[in-house]
């Protein structure tokens, strides 16, 4: 009888162990199905724009957050006068120069630079290139001691309005447009 009970116990133990999940490595092929979810980037009110282009024979890339006017007063309100502005939204706007360039006649080595401006109610605006290009919070982390370049640029005001901020690689180098502002920056 003891042998029968011992055999039955052993059989039950073997069955219990065999029913446990096995710890074996396996490779499963995952098939991606189209998602209806939107990415974090798609949900941003000011989506990131990346522009690639050539100025002369030199490659230039611009990364910026593109805010919309949305019926707001931009200049002197949302973007105050006489204060450093990150020139976009979200992270700091930055330029990537593959080769040395000149900006408004001043030499700038190849590299990545954050772009800031100081808007003025009248007269020329200050355009700033800063060596600290990877700023998560734009102008909140701006440090003037890292400025590589400060130049004065004349804005113009157009009749038509651009709903979204854009920075285009076009003559005379870079042209920023937002609301009725057009800010051409000479880059060669």
Automatic annotation (TrEMBL):
Superkingdom as given in the UniProt entry: Bacteria
Protein name: DUF2911 domain-containing protein
InterPro entries referenced in this protein's UniProt entry, alphabetically: DUF2911
Segments of skewed composition (Basic and acidic residues): 41-52
Region (Disordered): 23-52
């Amino acid at each position: 009888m003891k042998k029968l009970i011992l055999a039955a116990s052993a059989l039950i133990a073997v069955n219990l162990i065999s029913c446990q999940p096995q710890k074996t490595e396996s490779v499963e092929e995952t098939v991606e199905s189209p998602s209806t979810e939107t990415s974090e980037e798609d949900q941003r009110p000011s989506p990131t724009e990346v522009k690639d282009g050539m100025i002369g024979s030199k490659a230039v890339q611009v990364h910026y957050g593109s805010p919309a006017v949305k019926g707001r007063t931009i200049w002197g309100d949302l973007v105050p006068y006489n204060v450093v502005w990150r020139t976009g939204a979200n992270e700091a706007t930055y330029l990537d120069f593959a080769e040395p360039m000149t900006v408004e006649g001043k030499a700038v080595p190849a590299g990545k630079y954050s772009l800031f401006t100081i808007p003025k109610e009248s007269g020329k605006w200050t355009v700033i290139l800063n060596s600290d290009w990877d700023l998560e919070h734009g102008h909140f982390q701006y440090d003037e001691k890292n400025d590589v370049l400060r130049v004065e640029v004349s804005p113009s005001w157009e009749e038509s309005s651009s709903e979204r901020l854009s920075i285009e690689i076009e003559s005379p180098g870079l042209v920023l447009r937002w609301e009725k502002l057009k800010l051409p920056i000479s880059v060669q």
